[in-house]
Automatic annotation (TrEMBL):
Keywords: Antioxidant, Oxidoreductase, Peroxidase, Redox-active center. One of its GO terms (molecular function) is thioredoxin peroxidase activity. One of its GO terms (biological process) is cell redox homeostasis. SUPFAM superfamilies: Thioredoxin-like. It catalyses: a hydroperoxide + 2 glutathione = an alcohol + glutathione disulfide + H2O. Belongs to the peroxiredoxin family. Prx5 subfamily. InterPro entries: PRX5-like, Redoxin, Thioredoxin-like_sf, Thioredoxin_domain. This is Glutathione-dependent peroxiredoxin. PANTHER family: PEROXIREDOXIN, PEROXIREDOXIN-5, MITOCHONDRIAL. Pfam families: Redoxin (PF08534). The active site is at residue 56. Thiol-specific peroxidase that catalyzes the reduction of hydrogen peroxide and organic hydroperoxides to water and alcohols, respectively. Plays a role in cell protection against oxidative stress by detoxifying peroxides. It comes from Cylindrospermopsis curvispora GIHE-G1.
Length: 177
């Protein structure tokens, strides 16, 4: 697992609502670059193995959503959840979760995750290649602080969730305020 200092340059394939389209699916594709997401901003990012999976849906995303306003008060411009899922899955998961504040960023090809050094094989669960759980503060494209779950390995028999949680992130941000 490589430790990098700058978020990798990638283009994310996202879908955005566009009322000009009309109909039951008023969305269009919009590319978003790493620079657009992180340049000139201080952003909390957390990454998880997959939408609709147990820990991700019951703990990881909901707690970041719950603490979003507190992160904003501590100088965070945006909170982003990255997962190796496509834009359609991320949209439906966000809807099902009632996520209103955290931006769900699809990394459908796993390019960002791979370049972060966090792509792992979860074939033992039938998931294929997914993200290892981690969280970080990105300040103007530079990684200020990163929390990586222990035990990083392909086909890990467990799913550690000890340090990438929202409360650990909150404590860090409070300590550097």
């Amino acid at each position: 697992m490589a430790v990098i200092q700058t978020v990798p340059e990638v283009v994310f394939k996202t879908r955005v609502r566009d009322e000009l389209i009309g109909g039951p699916n008023p969305f269009r594709w919009q590319d978003r670059t790493t620079e657009q997401l992180f340049a000139g901003k201080r952003v909390v990012v957390f990454s998880l193995p997959g939408a609709f999976t147990p820990t991700c849906s019951t703990s990881h995303l909901p707690r970041y959503e719950e603490l979003y306003d507190e992160f904003k008060r501590l100088g965070i411009d945006e909170v982003i959840c990255v997962s190796v899922n496509d834009a359609f899955v991320m949209y439906q998961w966000g809807k099902q979760q009632g996520a209103q504040k955290v931006f769900l960023l699809p990394d459908g090809n796993g390019e960002f995750t791979r370049k972060m050094g966090m792509l792992v094989d979860k074939s033992n669960l039938g998931f294929g290649m997914r993200s290892w759980r981690y969280s970080m503060v990105v300040n103007n494209c530079q990684i200020e602080k990163i929390f990586i779950e222990p035990g990083y390995e392909d086909n890990c028999p467990t799913d550690p969730f000890e340090v990438s949680d929202a409360d650990t992130m909150l404590k860090y941000l409070q300590s550097v305020k």
